[in-house]
Structures are given as C-alpha cells and as structure tokens.
Amino acid sequence: MPEQPYEPEGAIAGTGMGGAMDLATAEGETLERTPGGPEGTGPQQKPRSLWSDAWRDLRRNPVFIISAIVILFLVFISLWPSAITWMSPLKCDLAKAQEGSQPGHPFGFDGQGCDVYTRTVYGTRTSVTVGVCATLGVALLGSVLGGLAGFFGGISDSFLSRITDIFFAIPVVLGGLVLLSVVTSNTVWPVVGFIVLLGWPQIARIARGSVITAKQNDYVQAARSLGASNSRILLRHIAPNAVAPVIVVATIALGTYIALEATLSFLGVGLKPPNVSWGIDISAASPYIRNAPHMLLWPAGALAVTVLAFIMLGDAVRDALDPKLR
Predict the structure, then answer these.
(1) What is the distance between the alpha carbons of residues 108 and 96, in angstroms, rounded to a whole number?
(2) In whole angstroms, what is the distance from residue 280 CA to residue 277 CA?
(3) Burial 181-213 (b: 16+ CB within 10 A, else e)
(4) For the chain, which residues score pLDDT lower than 50?
(5) Start-to-end CA span in the chain (Å)
(6) According to the model, what pLDDT value does residue 239 have?
(7) How much is the pTM?
(8) What pLDDT, on a 0 to 100 scale, did the predictor assign at position 19?
(9) What domains does the chain contain, in order, with CATH numbers?
(10) Are 113 and 94 in contact (CB under 8 A)?
C-alpha cells in the first residue's frame, strides 16, 4: 500500500499550499476568491481588509442607509438652507405671534411672530456645525493623547489616567453653566471648545485601550525586530488597526454633542439670540406649550430626529467594524 503524503493539521483542502495560512488571514482578514490564477492551481484567494468587509456590510444594512440619507439631507439644508425656504429666520411680525399653520407657513409662528419652519431649517446649521466640529476636536485630541499614552506606557500612561479621572468627575451640564456663563462671545466656538474640553477623556480612554491591544500583536513585534521606528510602528501598523473603536464612539457621541448644545442653549449659557438654535427656540416656546404647542413641537422634533439619526449611524458602524458581532 503506497505511503500517504503527510498533510499538516489544519491544512486548507484544495489550495495546494500544504495548509499554510496567509499572514493576513491570521491577522483577522477574510479571503476572497478571485479568478485568473495560474493554470492548474485554481482561483487565487485575495485577502479582504476589515474596512472592505465593513463597507460591504454597511451597504446591506437598512439602518445605515436610512440614517445616512437623513444625515445627508441635514447636511444639505445646513449648507444651503435657502434651497428649501425663502424667508429670513430673523424676519418677524408681532401681529402673527403664536398663530398656527397658514399657507406658506406650515409650522406656524413663534412668540415673536417669526416663521417656525424657517427657524427650524436654519437651526440645522448651528446643530450640525457644533456636532461635527466638536466631534472632530474630541476625536483628534483624545486619539493623540490616548494613543501616545497607551503606546509608551509608564509615567505618561499613569498621568493621563489620573487626568481623565478628574475630567470624568466633572458634571457636564454643571461645568457648562460655570464655564460658559463667563464667556462673552456669541458664536458657536465657545460651545465647541467646552465640548472638546470635557469630551476628549472618553475618546482617550478608548484609544488607549485599543492601542494597548494592538501593540501586542505579532506583526507589531515583527516590525520592531526589523528596526522600525516608534513613529512608523504607531502610524503604519497600530493606528490603522486601533482606529475602529474611536470611529464608532465618535459617531455615536456626535448626536450626544448636538443634544448637549441644545441643552446649554435652553439653559441660556450656550448660544444666545440673534443666533438661531433649536435649543433657543425650545426655551422660548416652553412657556407657551399649552396655548401654542406647535412652537415647541417642530424644533424639538427636528432635534430628536437628528440625534436619533446619528445614534443609528453609530450603531450600524459599530456592528460593521466589530468582528465579534458578525
């Protein structure tokens, strides 16, 4: 009886490779068969990255599609509000104060006789601007500080951990009441700066843990043994594999930051008139909720839809980027 050829345990049948696994597959990538391999060897297997798999899953997720459409619409009207309304949000007529829906004014008028529809549309610009700018600032600052602390460890890591503990102990709304009450600027930037100041510790802690996990992988140790510098290891090998949790948390937090801006404006320490903000309109409409509920309904509904859209988008991105949830 002829001797059977030895095949290592775990060999891949039909590959002709003796069961040797590609390094990319060992690092968590999936294999995608592509035609056109050498004659007699069958189709080749091309590794798919985490990002390509995530994009494929997102395109098939109805939650992602719906939330993305809503967010794209919000971005559009925040950039070009005049495309869907011809009135000015500051044009008011006291003779029409608190009146309901009329032809040309579907949302009615507020307590100053301003068109509620127009102010709701223009309020989108403020909320999206604050949310996007605050998220970018929080993600950048938190990722840099948390990534460096997790990579180098030691004293820098301990120092950052104690600093984040201090910031986590500060109540967000109370901190906004104290810090923003002394600010005289009537723009969105003090609010953005406050959110970045109190929001970066969460991202820093996520980035730190992700970098600590990534730097223990074999490919990082191989790059270090080949003489790669710390900057190259951090930027080329660790950052691409550690950024996914940061993206997920930042996407979900964007909706939270929009709600926080509305809360601070409602309390009178965020944006102030003549700025147009959903928080300002909700604050102005709250005393008239019984007599003119439409004044509160539309800006509050727009705020709820916007926050929900970003949270849904973050959940869809989390499901696509987390291999454990597949």
Answers:
(1) 9
(2) 5
(3) eeeeeeebebbbbbbbbbbbbbbbbbbbebbbe
(4) 1-34, 36-37, 39-40, 42
(5) 46
(6) 85
(7) 0.79
(8) 40
(9) 67-325 (1.10.3720.10)
(10) yes
